[in-house]
């Protein structure tokens, strides 16, 4: 893990020169690394190079006007289930972060790509879903969008998306302590139309102080037994109409959270707890600090 901060960029304008063979080799080596999702899903990442596009007489993978230039593309196939979609975004954003560290530019194409064309080319089944495609390549320097940290001023403030003990009580960076930078990495992360549909509640080691009742019944994600002796972070999604996309957005948020807490050597694991439902929010998972 090279960086302590996530400095990913998004670009819609790629170079007209296809990615070099050296860069393609680097990309392939990154894609081949083990990258399982938090909730147990594993994806085989497909790489679409420029020669494939030419061979199949495809003018563009992306929708008209979405991006320019000659990037490559990466994607995989998922089911429509909630945790499958979350893991899909988590896994692909992990790749985006590593590609960024290696000097490869990228942008998420949520619905801005030719779904039917891809399904036909790769002979996918009707029930197979391609939740999103990511364009990767060499961005034109003069037209790159600003980095995540530079865009942070356009994001919702820390106390609006992160809460202390109960939703509605703002969490301060001071009270977040060693997890302040971890949460900040989530706050400045990308989301569909910059809606930031996620919310995180910092909980203490005293279950009686939480905003919702908890149950002793849990679904373990990592196989580690539960202890109630440490801090927890509960992940929620604000209810809005775009269900598939909000699950993708929380997957990206989880990727940023997990990347930064590993970079800071903060130990813990994810689990799914019962009894944490809150009106107008969809509970996703909890990170238990060890």
List the SSEs and their pairings.
Layout (H helix, E strand, L loop, with lengths): L20 H11 L14 E3 L1 H6 L16 E4 L6 H20 L3 E5 L5 H7 L11 E5 L10 H4 L6 H4 E3 L8 H4 L3 H8 L10 E6 L14 E3 L11 E7 L4 H21 L4 E6 L7 E9 L1
Parallel strand pairs: 5-6
Antiparallel strand pairs: 1-2, 2-4, 3-4, 6-8, 7-9, 8-10, 9-10
Structure in a nutshell:
Helices cover 29% and strands 18% of the residues. The chain is an alpha+beta fold and 290 residues long. It has 2 domains: 21-143, NADH Oxidase, CATH 3.40.109; 148-289, putative nitroreductase (tm1586), domain 2 (NADH Oxidase, 3-Layer(aba) Sandwich), CATH 3.40.109.
**Top CATH class of the largest domain:** Alpha Beta
Instruction: Kindly name the structural category.
Output: alpha+beta
Rounded Rg: 19 Å
The main pleated sheet reads as: 6 strands, mixed
What this model shows, in words?
With 290 residues, the chain is α+β, with helices and mostly antiparallel strands. The protein folds into 2 domains: 21-143, NADH Oxidase (3-Layer(aba) Sandwich); 148-289, putative nitroreductase (tm1586), domain 2 (NADH Oxidase). It has 9 helices and 10 strands. The chain has helices spanning 21-31, 50-55, 82-101, 115-121, 148-151, 158-161, 173-176, 180-187, 243-263; strands spanning 46-48, 72-75, 105-109, 133-137, 162-164, 198-203, 218-220, 232-238, 268-273, 281-289. The strands form 2 sheets. It has a 6-stranded mixed beta sheet. Strands 1-2-4-3 form a 4-stranded antiparallel beta sheet. Strand 9 and strand 10 (281-289) form a beta hairpin. The longest helix has 21 residues, at 243-263. It starts with 20 loop residues before the first helix and ends with a strand.
């Amino acid at each position: 893990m090279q960086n302590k901060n996530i400095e990913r960029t998004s670009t819609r304008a790629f170079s007209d020169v296809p990615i070099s063979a050296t860069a393609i080799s680097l990309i392939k080596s990154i894609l081949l690394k083990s990258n399982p999702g938090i909730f147990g899903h594993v994806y085989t990442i497909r790489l679409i190079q420029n020669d494939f596009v030419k061979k199949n007489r495809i003018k563009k993978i992306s929708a008209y006007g979405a991006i320019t230039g000659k990037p490559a593309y990466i994607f995989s196939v998922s089911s429509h289930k909630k945790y499958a979609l979350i893991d899909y975004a988590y896994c692909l954003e992990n790749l985006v972060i590593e590609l960024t560290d290696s000097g490869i530019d990228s942008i998420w194409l949520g619905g801005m790509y030719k779904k039917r064309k891809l399904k036909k080319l790769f002979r996918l089944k009707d029930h197979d879903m391609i939740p999103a495609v990511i364009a990767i390549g060499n961005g034109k320097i003069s037209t790159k969008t600003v980095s995540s940290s530079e865009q942070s001023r356009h994001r919702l403030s820390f106390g609006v998306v992160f809460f202390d003990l109960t939703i509605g009580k703002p969490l301060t960076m001071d009270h977040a302590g060693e997890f302040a930078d971890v949460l900040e990495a989530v706050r400045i992360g990308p989301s569909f139309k910059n809606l930031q549909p996620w919310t995180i509640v910092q909980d203490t080691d005293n279950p009686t102080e939480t905003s919702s009742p908890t149950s002793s019944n849990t679904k373990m994600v990592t196989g580690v037994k539960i202890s109630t002796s440490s801090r927890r972070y509960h992940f929620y999604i604000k209810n809005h109409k775009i269900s598939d996309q909000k699950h993708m957005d929380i997957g990206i948020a989880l990727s940023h959270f997990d990347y930064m807490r590993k970079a800071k050597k903060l130990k813990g694991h994810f689990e799914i707890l019962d009894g944490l439902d809150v009106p107008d929010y969809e509970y996703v998972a909890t990170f238990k600090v060890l």
